[in-house]
Amino acid sequence: MNKFGHLPTPPDGPFRFIALDVETASRAAGSICQIGLCFVSDTGTMQTYSVLVDPEDPFEAFNTELHGISAETVRDAATFPTVYAALFDRLNTHSLVQHSTFDEKVMTAACARYDLPMLTSHWTNSVKVARQAWPALKGAGGHGLANLKKHLGLSFHHHDAGEDARAAACVILKAEETTGVRLAHLKTNRQLNLPI
After folding, report:
1. What is the helix, strand, coil percentage profile of the chain, to 5?
2. CB 118 within 8 A of CB 92
3. Of the candidates 77, 93, 95, 14, which has an alpha carbon nearest to the alpha carbon of residue 47?
């Protein structure tokens, strides 16, 4: 268990979708130092998991100030290829949610850096979903997680990957409540073809 009570290991699915968030050690796109996942069931139950990653890159002060993760924090953590291998099948067989497109870009950069297979999952950007559900927020703080936290009354610790993944999942579920429409492309077992 980490300090926010996230699961010590990822749960077994299937899930309706998985929200994903990453934190990075520096401006280098592939410098992932934490991956957070929120697993959402058909009934809306959420389970959150996060894992520290040794980025094999130096940490920049700005990033550490933002998320509190340093070289010391990840001293005993596994590197990205090890963590990714353990998560790949779960991620690649579910629809993924991210808040903005940052997380997909960083995951893609890390895969390229280590010459690993890219995820072929469908990614949903919860910022776009939030814009449709709450258009009045444009120009009134916007649709970033910090403003949505205030507007929607969400409770989470910003810039922890597991917490931000849970927040992105909450944005999707609350948007569906607000609009009265479930996002059709977020389905349990959307992709059944596991890679060989």
Report:
1. 35, 15, 45
2. no
3. 14
pLDDT tens-digit profile of 77-99?
Answer: 999 999 999 999 999 999 999 99
Determine, yes or no, domain membership for 115.
Answer: yes
Q: What is the tens place of the pLDDT at every residue in 129-164?
A: 999 999 999 988 899 888 888 888 887 777 899 999
Domains held by the chain: number: 1
Q: Which domain holds residue 35?
A: 17-179
Q: What are the start-end ranges of the E strands in 41-181? A: 46-52, 96-98, 123-125
Cα–Cα–Cα angle for 53, 59, 62, nearest 5°?
120
The DSSP output letter for 187 is -
pTM above 0.90, yes or no: yes
